[in-house]
């Protein structure tokens, strides 16, 4: 493998952002690095792309997918209510944190849980942040594995079944081997405290 200079890494990053944005805007599905593990993603407002992800993962439709947003302002467009304490909690939580919100709106029905909830994480990873900003919409993010199989802790563990069905595979950070972990998942109680569903 060629030596990855900072300039080469930035060149790869910029090309990936441009290509991935194009694929997402045209209803495609991508494999990309997130602030947790490698994920399969699409425009979270594109019902057909979401359906494809369920098919690729062989995932039951009643098991909803989560979203990545770039800010609390973006989250507000897709949920009915955000507890006032939540912004503070998000700012101080150390690990990536997915919040289950009630009253999902402006999203395809095949993305929302039967009880009307949706899981959203504000991405802290700079690549994800920029990609979401470019697309202007939240992105679906789900682990790059078949449902029920172990999730890949780094790119080298992503199966050929997943890779072959992507419209675009991001090259940026493929060389990293530090194991990633899924996010913490929580919902907010009426008093603003977090109730952890997955630590």
- What CATH calls the topology is DHBP synthase
Q: What is the annotated CATH architecture? A: Alpha-Beta Complex
How helical, in percent, are the residues?
A: 25-40%
Rg value: 16 Å
Query: Strand content of the residues, in percent?
Result: 15-25%
| Helix-strand topology string | HEEHEHHEEHEHEEE
Shape: globular
Number of strands: 9
Largest sheet composition? 9 strands, mixed
Q: Quote the average pLDDT.
A: 92
Strand order of the largest sheet: 7-1-2-6-3-5-4-8-9
Structural class: alpha/beta
Model regions low in confidence, pLDDT < 50 over at least 5 residues: none
> What is the count of DSSP helices, taking H or I runs of 4+ residues?
6
CATH superfamily: DHBP synthase
CATH C-level name = Alpha Beta
Domain count: the total is: 1
Terminal Cα span: 37 Å
Give structural notes.
With 199 residues, the protein is α/β, with parallel strands linked by helices. The chain has one domain: DHBP synthase (Alpha-Beta Complex), CATH 3.90.870. The chain has helices at 6-25, 47-57, 72-76, 86-92, 126-135, 160-164, and strands spanning 30-33, 38-41, 66-69, 97-101, 118-122, 139-143, 168-169, 184-188, 194-198. It has a 9-stranded mixed beta sheet with strand order 7-1-2-6-3-5-4-8-9.
């Amino acid at each position: 493998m060629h030596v990855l200079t900072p300039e080469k890494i930035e060149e790869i990053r910029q090309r990936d952002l441009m290509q991935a944005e194009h694929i997402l805007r045209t209803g495609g599905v991508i494999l990309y690095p997130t602030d947790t593990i490698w994920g399969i993603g699409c425009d979270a407002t594109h019902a057909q792309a979401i359906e494809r992800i369920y098919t690729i993962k062989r995932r039951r439709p009643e098991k909803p997918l989560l979203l990545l947003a770039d800010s609390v302002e973006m989250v507000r467009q897709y949920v009915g209510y955000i507890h006032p304490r939540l912004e503070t909690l998000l700012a101080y939580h150390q690990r990536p944190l997915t919040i289950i919100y009630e009253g999902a709106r402006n999203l395809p029905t095949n993305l929302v849980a039967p009880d009307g909830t949706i899981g959203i994480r504000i991405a802290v990873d700079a690549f994800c942040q920029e990609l979401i900003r470019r697309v202007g919409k939240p992105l679906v993010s789900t682990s790059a594995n078949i449902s029920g199989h172990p999730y890949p802790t780094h790119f080298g563990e992503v199966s050929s079944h997943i890779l072959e069905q992507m419209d675009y595979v991001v090259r940026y950070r493929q060389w990293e081997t530090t194991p990633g972990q899924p996010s913490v998942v929580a919902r907010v109680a009426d008093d603003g405290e977090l109730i952890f569903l997955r630590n």
